[in-house]
Amino acid sequence: MVDAEDQVIVGLEVHCQLDTKSKLFCGCSTDYRSDGPNTHVCPICLGLPGAMPALNKRAIEYAMKVAKALNCEILEESEFSRKNYFYPDLDKAYQITQYDKPLAEGGYVEIESDEGGERKIRLTRIHVEEDPGRLVHMGNVERGKYSLVDYNRAGIPLIEIVSEPDMRSPKEARKFLNKLRATLEYLNVFDSEKEGSIRVDANISIKGNERVEVKNITSYKGVEKALTFEVTRQKNLIRRGQKIERETRHYLEARGVTQAGRSKEQENDYRYFPEPDLRPLRVKSWLDGIVLPELPDARRERFIVQYGCSLNHARTLTGELKLANFFEKVVASDKSGLSPLASTWIADTLIGELNYRDMSLDKVEPAAITGLVLLLKAGTITDKSGIEVLRVLLDQRFKNESAETADAIVKRLNLAKTAGDSGAITMAIEEAINENPKALDDYRSGKAGALNFLVGQVMKKTRGKADPAELNRMLTEALKNKEA
Amino acid sequence: MAGEITFNPDDKYNAFLATCRKAPHGSGKLAGVAVAVKDNISTMDIETTCASKILKGYIPPYDAHVIGLLKAEGAAIVGKTNMDEFGMGTTTENSAFGPTLNPCDTGRVPGGSSGGSAAAVAAGMVQMALGSDTGGSIRCPASFCGIAGLKPSYGRVSRYGLIAYSNSLEQIGPLGKTVTDVSTLMGVIAGHDRHDTTSLDKPYNHIPNADIRGLKIGIPQEYFGKGVDTNVADVVKKAIGRLEELGATTVPCSIPSMEYALAAYYVTCTCEASSNLARFDGVRYGPAPDTKKSWHDAYQEVRSTAFGTEVRRRIMLGTFALSSGYYGKYYAKAQAARENIKADFNRIFKDVDVIAGPTMPTIAFRLKEKSDPLSMYLADILTVPANLAGIPAISVPCGKSDGMPVGLQIMGRMFEDERVVDVAYAYEQEVN
Predict the structure, then answer these.
(1) What is this model's ipTM?
(2) Is B38 a residue of the active site?
(3) Cross-strand pairs, B357
(4) What pLDDT digit, counting tens, does each position of A177-217 carry?
(5) CA distance B252 to chain A (A)
(6) Which residues of chain B have a CB within 8 Å of the CB of A279?
(7) CA-CA distances (angstroms) from residue B56 to B20, B59, B73, B285, B287?
(8) Is pLDDT larger for residue A312 or for residue A457?
(9) Once rounded to an integer, what is the mean pLDDT over residues B329-340?
(10) Quick check: A273 and B159 CB within 8 A?
(11) Residue of A373, B138, B213, B215 with fewest CB within 10 Å of its CB?
(12) Scanning every residue of chain B, which has its alpha carbon at the shortest distance from the alpha carbon of A25?
């Protein structure tokens, strides 16, 4: 691929919290989010004088799983280093991280490129480090009276995945991140739903110009938004003939903009040196014991083969572990019979409706969707009614009202197709033609739109229950009779 | 709890920073034995300051691993001893709470940095004490005060709870009036601790044995050369003569890499210290600044007033040496020099079982005699090689010069702490 003159170039540094039970260097529980501040702490993660780190092997195993899944090479020997800087959330005034000897190097993530087709985004490295604590500002950072420090998060294991500058648009960056998330979820080492479990720093430049680092992106959508903002900002500067400065900017999630950081922050000299309290890591041999589960790409291919999903549907359905599992549960009772309808209804309709409500898939039981798909498959309801049933079904579950099955909703709202009940349709057709003499005239003079208009009118009267094909046939017949 | 001992010493030498008048004890190998603990070793519910104003009022919520082991064997922790602030010194004059005086001559320093522990033992206030040795901090005061002190092999004693000065060099170790006491205490504190991943599963179960027939002792020329007081050298040579009389043979040897030992030592320890001591900011413990300044200004205020001069000097040296572009010039080079020193020792230990020489180049300095930091640093020349190489080294009293004690230093192969103890014990038995 030859880059255009104003090609966007993006590289990401993604920090993910590993979902281990205990912290990276002590036995404190990582399940801190629902508890009060400074309740998941001990001398080690508080950095009390004399306390020493002892490595949690599980965290290294998790990180190696990720490295293996992302095709990285585990280094023969890696080591922890200290990154020294002062900040109140950093209790030791250094972060134990990995510097010149990371756990793993190389590797890649495959994404669907903007031009379609798969594209490899190369990885530079993966390293393991500890999360710092968290500051809670009373008021705002600049003018608040004081800030409180919560060390519950201090010592949570993180991996930092650093990509090469291989992404060519904000959209690709988001795809990369989504793919990464899916892979980590499939590996069962990461919980994307925990607040703050992923944090992204992005490097972005317009070809031939200085790069800008955007820090503090904390959501999946945020990556695309922050980078889109940056692309516009940088291109505008170039258009006006201004130079892009190499700088660090902060993303303000609430406003969707990036803001220049204080120049002081760029002058940090972290004075890295090997952590003398930990021995070098020689863990390459552990690789043999690491068995990878089915990963997103393999599952996507399986969905295409096993369920006959389209590539796009398969990609969507396998793009999130939960969704893929959900789909397989929905169709479990009749794989070949239900999957064609289920894949469309889940990948297209259900996701759209969930997003509209900002509702979690967890609130929907797969059986409810199986019920809906069965009704659609049997031809009991029309697609239009199907959407109505789905909406009612989701609303009930979203509002935690008593949840009806699709069957019950259809019965209660009398949404079953009127096929067979030709009396009701015949009556509706009669009414529609009588109420719209102009349409009848148009139809007679051969205007194509007239038939569709009348179909719509009948649909309205039958509240969508009429089977479209059947209705067409009956209406055409009725119109012919009128001519006679 | 098996009992309680009353501890109310007349501390004329300012050896203690804190004492426990009623010290509980349990039963075991050290049942009811009064043990003093250097103030950089964390003791639950007992103020632990590292002799620094910046930790004034800090009461650890946990015990160092070695303290747990002492308690499990019934020892009574009777107090915390004075030291050079954070272990940075060779005299115990760098304490924020005043110097400790040498019980052998109160006009002289007890050595450092574990000066309080050595003085407490020398004055008979306690039978044994814990110190820590980063570049000689157990052996130097043992030598100056006329007692025995062991720096164990790196990794034999857990450092968990030892307030770090220079992690890659330091070890907690025992001080006692006799080698037997030192050996007993070592037996209690050695062994693996999962909280210190640099500690090893090498427990110490040894009863000192005075039979050293056939032992080969290396005598490095550097330990009797320039900078070493001739009277001290003579006393030590005589002591080595006694070891020969006991059936040992001596072999002259050389440690050429010693030329770089002090540089490697001071680069390593200041670099590590600059990072270790960065956490002392007045936020979580120690005296908080009474200020409404922004956090970095508040940090600056606390750190520039609550750290002593020597500590500030070493923090600045270490910060500089680790700065971008200097790491390779200093820290990395110092580690390379350490490898050379290790290689020298390995080579020598192919031919000899132990290496002997003076612990310190001189007798105890007079108070305020070493006001120039560089001349103080030079006094560490004979002790730092063992720390750089990680090998065990013991100091045992071997006579007097100008009425002041002189220490004989025995260094051994990695993890052969038992052997250096035996040699020291053989000497001690011979002269008593």
Answers:
(1) 0.96
(2) yes
(3) B409
(4) 999 999 999 999 999 989 889 999 999 999 999 999 999 89
(5) 34
(6) 197-198
(7) 17, 9, 30, 8, 7
(8) A312
(9) 96
(10) no
(11) B213
(12) B195
B329 is catalytic: no
- B113 is an active site residue: yes
Q: Is the CB of residue A151 less than 8 Å from the CB of residue A180?
A: no
Q: What amino acid is encoded at A357 in this protein?
A: R
The answer to whether B189 and B128 have CB atoms below 8 angstroms apart is no
Residue pair B421/B394 in contact by the 8 Å Cβ criterion: yes
Q: What span, in angstroms and rounded, lies between the C-alpha atoms of B126 and A176?
A: 66
**Which residues lie closer than 8 Å to A484 by C-beta, 6 or more apart?**
none
User: CA-CA distance, B119 to B98, in Å (whole number)?
Assistant: 14
Structural domains of chain B ordered from first start = 1-432 (3.90.1300.10)
Q: What CATH topology corresponds to A422-483?
A: Arc Repressor Mutant, subunit A (1.10.10)
Residues of chain A whose C-beta is under 8 A from some C-beta in B? Answer: 43-44, 46-55, 82, 84, 86, 88, 91-94, 149, 269, 271-273, 276-279
- pLDDT tens for residues B202-250? 999 999 999 999 999 999 999 999 899 999 999 999 999 999 999 999 9
User: How many angstroms separate the CA of residue B274 from the nearest CA in chain A?
Assistant: 9
Query: 3-state class of B408 per DSSP?
Result: strand
In chain A, ranges of CATH 1.10.10.410 domains: 422-483
Cα gap B400→B64, rounded to integer Å: 36
Whether residue A142 is predicted with pLDDT greater than 70 in this model: the reply is no
The pLDDT tens digits for A75-119 are: 999 999 999 999 999 999 999 999 999 999 999 999 998 788 889
From B28's Cα to the closest Cα of chain A, the distance in A is: 26
Token duo for residue B187: 């037996």
Q: Is the pLDDT of residue A266 over 70?
A: no
